[in-house]
Structure formats: C-alpha cells, structure tokens
User: What shape does this take?
Amino acid sequence: MASLKQLCKKPELFSKGHRACAGCGESLAVRQVLLAADQPIVTVMPTGCLEIFSSIYPHSAWQVPMIHTAFETSASTASGVETAYRFHKKMGRMKEDVKFIAFGGDGGTYDIGFQALSGAVERRHKFLYVCTDNEGYMNTGIQRSSATPMGAHTTTSPAGTKIPGKKQHRKDIMEIMIAHDLAYAGQTTVALWNDLVTKVQKALAADGPTFLNVLVPCPLGWQYPGDRTIEVSRLAADTCFWPVYEFDNGRYKINHLPKEKLAVEEFLKPQGRFRHLFTHPEGKDVIAEIQRHIDAKWALLQKKAEVLG
Amino acid sequence: MADLKSWKELPCGAIIEDMKAVLDNKTGAWRSMRPVWSEEKCINCLVCWVYCPEASIKVEDGKMTGIDLDYCKGCGICAAVCPKKVHAIDMVKEEK
Assistant: This one.
C-alpha cells in the first residue's frame, strides 16, 4: 500500500512536455508505473503511440534509460539487455541491482510482439512487461486489434448496415501469460492507482518474468471527452468488463470487488465507439452477448480465486 | 536550417543526450480550457496529482502549490477527479 504523500516525494521519471493527446490514459499509466518503480531501472519501448508522443528526436520524456525498438521486439530487446546486465554483474563490473521494464501497447503485445514476449518469458528473463492496453491500433488510425472488444467500432471493423462493429470477442492475454507459469501476472487499470502501484512493486520484487496488463482509456479511439478518462476506466472495473486480479505464485486473487456489479451498458454508454449498439437493429443482441461473456468470465474467475486462492 | 547538424555530427544510435530538452516543448499552447485552482478550497488530497497525465500539478512537501500552465493541455481530468464536496478546480474557457 502506497500513499500519495509518499509517492509525491519521488522524482517524476516521465516528464511533462510529451505530446500525448489531452486526457491520454497511456501516458498516465506510464507515469504511474515509473512512480512506483525504484531506480535504477532500464526501460524498453517498441513503436506505438507511446513512442510517438514521448520520444520524438531530439526530445525524450523518459528521465530513465530507455531503448526504443521495433514493434515486435520489446520483450526480446529487454531479454538481451537483461542478459548483458547479468553477464557484467557476474564478471564483477557492476554492483547495482538494476530492474528492467518493457512496455508495449496492445498491438505490440497481443498481436505483433507476442512471440517475442512468449519466448522471453519462457527463457525466464527477470523483467516486468507492461502492456498498456487501449484496445486497438490507435497510433495508426484506430484499427481493430485482438484486444478490441466485441461491438466496438474501429476503422477496420466499421459499424454500419453490414456489421455492428467488431464481431469477435477479445483475446484473454492474461490467461495466455499465466499459462507460461510466470512469477507474477496482474491486471489493473489507471483509475485504481493504488492497485497499479502495488502490482508494479510486487512484480519488480518477484524473481522471474512478470506481466502487467493495464487498461488505458483512449479519448480519441474510444470517442469520449478527455476529462472522463478516469471515470471510464473505473466503470470498466466496476462492470467487471475489466476484472482486476492477480496471479501470484500459482494463486489467483481478485483485487477489486465492485460494491455493486454494474450492467455493461454503463461502460458502453459514455463511449462513441459503442454508440451504434443502442440504435443498430442487432445492437441489443450484441450487448446481451457482451454481458453474457463478461458474466461467464467473471464467474470463472471467482471460481479460480476460490479454488486457487 | 543552418544550425542543423549533419549526420556525421549526430551521436551514434540516435542517443538523446539532453534528457531535459523535452521541456522546450511547451504543450500548454494546445489548451482550449484552463483549470483554475482555489487554494482555500483545496484539501491537498493529491488525487489530481496522481491522475494528471502531464505531471503538471505542482506539489511541494505533500501540498499542492499550483498548476503548471506551461505544460497543462487542459484535459480537465483534475477537475473531474477533485472530490465533489471540495470542488477546488474549475475549468474555464481559454481566452487570448
């Protein structure tokens, strides 16, 4: 448990002056992750929104060492750097205890960077991988990714007379990563800053590869006014659309139990990308299917927390 | 264009040597709405500080001291997360 009074004394490692949209959830997530981490840390970041807004040459918002790498290679670059560090330490050339954090958007994690991530975790490199999941390829103009939820309008799953937005459910990356038997995996969102900070600290303390999946609302792609970022993020957790839980050494734990589990409409309504669901002839069925999927996943998760808690 | 460096003068691997250069980029110019903070009403809960994507809430010794308008983009998150009973931040239209 961290307190804001303690956190605000730490140096700001993700500097102001970056070029993210007003109200960007991703820049907020990165700032919160770096606030939680203790130096020395080395970060790796692939192409994506994060690269474009934080490190346009000759500017860099990163006040820690950061390596920019190709879209698919965030995890493999981190594993290389971590291996070099272990070698130097073994040879007695380095004394410090350095932590490694690799970032990736949902495109760079769920789709393009997945095999690099899977390989790095299998090789048991000691690093934290943070996926800042905004549910689409927002940087290139809001295309669907395998993290885009059912019913969402994107430029490659456009809502219209033929289809009511994306037709498939999202990929469950958490369960895929847990299947790798990693040391720690957590899912959280920016509105729950305390949960996020705690999870980053737990992950960095763990011995082995760790994974954190952070939901970061995107005002541009999700089509809502920028001041509602925190509200939308909280609604995702309270509707159980985005279950906040962790997998710590074989044990499942739910970290955020909503006081009252809200209907998914509460999360869909503020967002323009789901607007058509309330007028489209197939919209009602799609919302019912989204709700059914959420309920089934939530029930399964509760069961896992009960049995493997 | 005269002061641009040639490729031979640039550091290898596009290393950025001046980490503070990003501060030249005054993103406050983007703003259309401006946050106005009331020091009397503020209870220093720092919720706005932790949710500011721009790190533009100025805090000293655990107390809020103002908003850095050089970088604040005017997203309005601070006003939205300020506790309703406190209501220490108002968004007003930016006028030139």
User: Anything to note?
Assistant: The beta strands of chain B are 33-37, 57-60, 63-67, 89-93. The interface with chain A takes residues 14, 16, 18-27, 30-31, 45-47, 49-56, 59, 62, 68, 71, 73-77, 79-81, 91 of chain B (CB under 8 Å). The mean pLDDT of chain B is 92. The helical segments of chain B are 47-51, 77-81.
